TrEMBL record:
This is mitochondrial intermediate peptidase. Belongs to the peptidase M3 family. It catalyses: Release of an N-terminal octapeptide as second stage of processing of some proteins imported into the mitochondrion. It comes from Batrachochytrium dendrobatidis (strain JAM81 / FGSC 10211). Gene3D superfamilies: 1.10.1370.40, Collagenase (Catalytic Domain), Neurolysin, domain 3. The keyword Chloroplast does not apply.
Amino acid sequence: MGLFGYLGLHHPAGFVSAAKNAVQRAQGIVDKVCAATTDDELKKTTKRLDTLSDILCCVVDTAEVIRNVHPDKEFVNAANQAHSILSNYLNQLNTHQGLYKTLKQTLDRSNIVDAMSEEEKRVAKLLMIDFEKSGIHMPDATRAEFVRINDRILELGQEFTMNSFPSEEFVQFDDAHNDLIGVPIPLVDALCRASSRAKRGSQSESSNRPARAIVPTSSDIASTILRTAHKEETRKRIYLAMNSASSHQISVLEEMLTCRADLARLLGKPSYGHVYLIDKMAESPEKVKSFLETLSYANRPLCDNEYNRLNDIKRVHTGRSEGIRGWDRSYYTQFLTRPTYETTHPSSSTPTPLRSGATSLRLNSLSSYYSVGSTLQGLSDVFNMLYGVRLEPSQVLQGETWHPDVRKLDVVHETEGKLGTIYCDLFSRESGGGRKYESAAHFTVRCSRRIDNDYDHYEPNFDTMSNPNNEQIVYHSQGKSSKLYQLPIIVLVTSFQRPQEGRPGLLELHDIQTLFHEMGHAMHSMLAKTDYQHIAGTRVAMDFVEVPSILMELFAKSPQVLAKFGQHYQTGDPIPMDLLEAQCLHLLTLEALETQQQLKMALLDQLYHSPLAMSKSTFNTTSILEDLQNSMFPIAFAPGTHWQIQFSHLFGYSASYYSYMWSRRWASRIYHKLFHGKPMEEWRAGGEEFRQQVLRWGGGRDPWIGLQHIGVVKEGERDGHGSGDVNDLY
């Protein structure tokens, strides 16, 4: 048995074999697509292109997971090699003139298009958009320039991402025990000892302890100092260093953005935002900008109220009224213990800020009530209430997973049977346990798609990804006919605290929200039943993909839900409701300020991909950031800072960072329309409506249609004329 049950992946060499075999199979389909001339052959084009994508993605997506989580370097290297082989081949296919011409010819024949299902039409049109985004329809000379610029963008984007950290690597404090008053003493002592080893001979005159401390700016240590140091000058030095940038870092970012503007110019568009958003829900930068600005305007009074509370604490502390600066926010936030803003005040006579000890102790003890196992059972119960789906532990065969921590869950519907499989790699690696992807993530290993109507059948081969040894297909009756689908395989990765002797892995509330979020993506993959891989599950528009996951986050923030599976891992006692409600409220501290920060980042992303970038001589990312922050955020921009070089999402999101806020709006409305305030016993009706109107379609239908059927789209919103509503955020 090999990884995920694929027979060929029992050994690292199987990855390269699988990649080469996939290319061979794919090339056979490419040849058939390019040779099509008759209507009978052209009508097979969309299905063949989708099958082609499935063959290649089954290998490249599996390799993507394994190179990020496998502790064995041989498997990682083999997965990297397979990924490289297939990425290069996919790049060739994305600019393949023969495939493009056949698809265009197919879409130009009205008799073929009229006979297509709505789902097939959508797939064909999305494939055409993808082709033309690569400049394939341009004259040869223009296309060559397009490719050159695009290659340069990739090069710059990689450099930008790799160097998205402060240019000032360290901040030195020569009188550490004085400069760092308020910072936990053990941390200060450790910094001094480390600095003493680096620079012998520097000792405080009043103490035997080393006095010099050198603080790395790209570290949790710097964040801790920003949060705890009593002296404003200390916090300011740390903040300025943490937001520093070199002229080279800025020039790399600005060249990447102006190169994107050059691509837009070649495509005849006024900005890169107009290019990138064409196939998104929002459709245009104008609609995105209107959404973000009206939401920011509606949120600003709440944001200002939170700012004023922080400023009141600073005024009491310093005796001055000069406003909260960037280096003050984290420090003064800790004195707001609850959203009702019961406050304590900093004291220069104590090494740590004064807080209610009882409150802190009680808040910190919450994780004892939430083990990973009980939380997964709670998730299963929620899914059962919503969709009639449960998560069933399944036996893992030898060689099927990459680490002993990995657990396998079958997703089973009460009447439809098995829907797919989720592999859960949830714990941080043990010491010496090898590398692992550090963030929470949802990886698709195999998409669901219809397979009984494939035009090109292949005999199962030992080293291909087409036929794993575990269950692959399931029938779904539809009237008198049945459709045969391959089952999806999903991997969830997190880095939760490992179990310890006598204690299971325990979760804080933010960990529970993370798990619910990622499981929301997984359930989208499980419950979508599309005929095409290209639109399966989470393969939806970028600005809609987070709706199911954010919806699950809202359930994870509900004391009503959390109380159902909160029980002490030792005694089995249920979690006290007052403790749970207090913690849920505590997590909402300064939520409006954080929301305004996210809106600022989303608007900055839009401005950087707007017509402003078309003029290289005047395009200045720092000036744009300064003007935006001072116009919409209560904490003023700090001159000399260049935070934008750390906004690494500018490369990956490409004018779509607004997507989280956009999705948050819909998830909030769906939650309040279908579930909020209703007994859990009545959730099934809302869950079925959400499944039928949203989840089951994957990317096979315009998401606006499902949202309109649910009744959460307000008048004028689709045309970009709606106004922001803070009720969508809280």
